[in-house]
Amino acid sequence: MAHMLEETAKGATMAWNGQVPWHGLGKQVSNDLTPIQMMQEAQCDWEVIKVPGFVELPDGKRILVGWNALIRSTDHKILSTVADGWEPTQNIEAFQFFAEYCLAGDMEMHTAGSLDGGKRVWVLAKIKDGFAIKGKDLIEPYLLFTNPHMYGHSNDVRFTPIRVVCHNTLTFALSADGKTDTVVRQSHRSKFNSERAKEILGIARDKLYAYKEMAEFLASRKAKNEDVVTWARQVFPLTTSKDKQTLNLSKGATMTLAQLDKQPGAELTPGTWWSAFNAATYVMDHGLGTVGDAGNERRMESAWYGKSRTRKMDGIKLALEFAEKSEAADIIAKAVSNAKKRKAGETTEPVTVAVAGGSGKAKKAEKADA
Hints:
elongated
């Protein structure tokens, strides 16, 4: 087993229900588990203990040093060192966050586990809502709760839509004002406030509707080959001076272009910006990196917390900008054609505008991720 997931006598520290998740890791469980049962199956049913740090002098005297160790209750493993004012959030609090939603039938537990030897515990719950692009490309929404037992990291809840046909993921930070995220990102300077955090469900639904609007727009716009190549270069830029001198495209860009017609679901919206964007996300979630469990774990962490998450958000914003430019060009071309037809006494075509001018959708993408 790779280093990010622990292997115990019960197996890997992860549990999931339904279809095998795209990362292919962990233990399968039934879909009717309570949050506490899911915590137990994922082997996250342990507590974090804050223990004062000290130095021991040659004479045996101990002097407190002003910091504390976070220790896992089951094996006394040190997870991190923190200041006196740091308040741990217990795993049971993270799982219980979903209890009333599951009881009301609004959500079901989907995936849970820990990474980095217990330093990062996460819970993924499926929201019983969703939509389909053009009636056939199903998008399912989830909430991802991350409880890090690490200095400098806050509790975090993110809206995570997943494209069913290929299990591509995208995560949006949940923010009520589009700028700061005081509702669902809670630091460890105070105890975790579950009631305050539960205000996010309405925000998550707003994010879902915004994402649906963006996805439908991308699926409605055809992408020119040369524009897709330019876009892929920007999403996956060449990074080293040597590569810039010797290569035309980065590995990520090359793989994305190769997946345009091969990715799962390529036949659903062929030749569109939605298809191009999903080719890139498919490469990030399933293609880049090493093979096997180690590669799957790294891609999963990158998709949720790291470089791939940022790159996907940049990718969808850029795709929206390209799509809006192509829409504007079509409108101008139709207007010019109509002017010629009016001059010739011919019937003109109606000119419709799908979105507001400028970078309206791209700005919505920025606000959705704020």
